[in-house]
Q: What sequence folds into this?
C-alpha cells in the first residue's frame, strides 16, 4: 500500500510539473528573446536574423533582439545558444556554416544536432559562379571544356578553407571531373578583389556579395548553384540548365532554440515564422539578399541539417581536406 501510495504521489508530481511547463509555455513569451548571430553585422546570417526579428516581435508580443556573437566561424554563437536557457529566451539564427563546422572540426563545444531544438527554416539562397568579363568561357559548358583542356592551369578562390564557397568548388571538381586549384582568402571582399585583380580564374559567392559587380559588368555571372534560377539574376541559368544535372549548393538560414526547449514554445515560434514569411514586405526584404523565403517544420529543418552534414562530409573526404582540431 505504501509503495502504491508513493507511486501515485510521484505520478501526480510528474503530471503537475508537466502541466506547469505547458502552462508556462502557453504564457510565453514573458521576456525579450535574444536571437544570436554567430557572424558580424551585414552578412547573410545577420540580415536573415534582422528581417525575422522585427515582425516576429510584433507577432509574439515581446522584443526579439538580434545579438552578434562572432568568432570561430559561427561556433561561438552556436555554443552560447547550445548551453543557454531552455525557456525560449535565447535562439540561434543558423546557416549552412552550422553544417560545415560539423564537417570541418574533429570536436565541437556542442553537439550540432542534439544540443539544438530546431524551429524552422526561414530562407534559402544559392551561390553564383562568377568570372572576369574577359574570361575565355561565356557559359558553364565552355568553362568545363576549357578547364578540362588545360588541367591545373585554372584556379578558383573562396573566402577561406572550410567555407561553403570552397565546398561549392570542390563539388564542381568532383561532379565534372576537373583539375582546378583552390586559392583561399580570408574574407569575401578579399576574394572578390582577387578575382577582379585576375589572381584567380573564377569564384563561387553569395549573390548579394557580387550582385553590384554583376550589374555593372565588372563580373560575369556563369551559373547559379540553386535548383531554380535566382530571382535577382533571372537571366543566369542553373547548373542543371547549363549542363551539369545533380549539382546543387544551397545556402540556408534557420532558427533553433537550445535542445530541450518545450515544444509549445517551439510550435508557437514556428507558427510566428510561418506567418511573417507570408508578408509581402518580408518577401521583398529576402529578395534583396538574393534569397527566397522558405519555412519548414522543426523535423524538416533537422533532417535538412543532417543531410547537409552527410553531403559535405563526403565531399570533404573525397577532396582530402583534413579536419581541424
A:
Amino acid at each position: 500500500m505504501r509503495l502504491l501510495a508513493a507511486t501515485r504521489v510521484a505520478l501526480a508530481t510528474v503530471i503537475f510539473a508537466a502541466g506547469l511547463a505547458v502552462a508556462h509555455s502557453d504564457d510565453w513569451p514573458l521576456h525579450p528573446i535574444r536571437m544570436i548571430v554567430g557572424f558580424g553585422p551585414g552578412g547573410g546570417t545577420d540580415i536573415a536574423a534582422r528581417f525575422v526579428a522585427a515582425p516576429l516581435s510584433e507577432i509574439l508580443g515581446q522584443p526579439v533582439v538580434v545579438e552578434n556573437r562572432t568568432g570561430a566561424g559561427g561556433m561561438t554563437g552556436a555554443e552560447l545558444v547550445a548551453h543557454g536557457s531552455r525557456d525560449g529566451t535565447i535562439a540561434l539564427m543558423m546557416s549552412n556554416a552550422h553544417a560545415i563546422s560539423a564537417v570541418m572540426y574533429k570536436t565541437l563545444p556542442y553537439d550540432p544536432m542534439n544540443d539544438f531544438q530546431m524551429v524552422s527554416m526561414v530562407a534559402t539562397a544559392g551561390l553564383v559562379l562568377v568570372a572576369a568579363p574577359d574570361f575565355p568561357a561565356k557559359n558553364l559548358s565552355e568553362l568545363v571544356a576549357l578547364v578540362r583542356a588545360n588541367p591545373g592551369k585554372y584556379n578558383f578562390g573562396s573566402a577561406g578553407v572550410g567555407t561553403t564557397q570552397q565546398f561549392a568548388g570542390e563539388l564542381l571538381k568532383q561532379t565534372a571531373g576537373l583539375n582546378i586549384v583552390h586559392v583561399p582568402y580570408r574574407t569575401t571582399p578579399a576574394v572578390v578583389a582577387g578575382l577582379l585583380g585576375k589572381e584567380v580564374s573564377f569564384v563561387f559567392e553569395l549573390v548579394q556579395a557580387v550582385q553590384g559587380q554583376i550589374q555593372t559588368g565588372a563580373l560575369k555571372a556563369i551559373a547559379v548553384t540553386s535548383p531554380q534560377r535566382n530571382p535577382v539574376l533571372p537571366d543566369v541559368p542553373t547548373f542543371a540548365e547549363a549542363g551539369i544535372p545533380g549539382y546543387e549548393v544551397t545556402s540556408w538560414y534557420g532558427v533553433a532554440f537550445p535542445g530541450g526547449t518545450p515544444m509549445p514554445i517551439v510550435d508557437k515560434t514556428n507558427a510566428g515564422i510561418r506567418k511573417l514569411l507570408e508578408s509581402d514586405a518580408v518577401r521583398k526584404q529576402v529578395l534583396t539578399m538574393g534569397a527566397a523565403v522558405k519555412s519548414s517544420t522543426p523535423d524538416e529543418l533537422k533532417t535538412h541539417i543532417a543531410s547537409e552534414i552527410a553531403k559535405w562530409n563526403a565531399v570533404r573526404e573525397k577532396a582530402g581536406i583534413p579536419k581541424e582540431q
In short: Residues 2-27 form the longest helix (26 residues). Confidence is low (pLDDT under 50) at residues 1-7, 9-23. Residues 208 and 289 are 5 Å apart (CA to CA). The chain is about 45% helix and 20% strand.
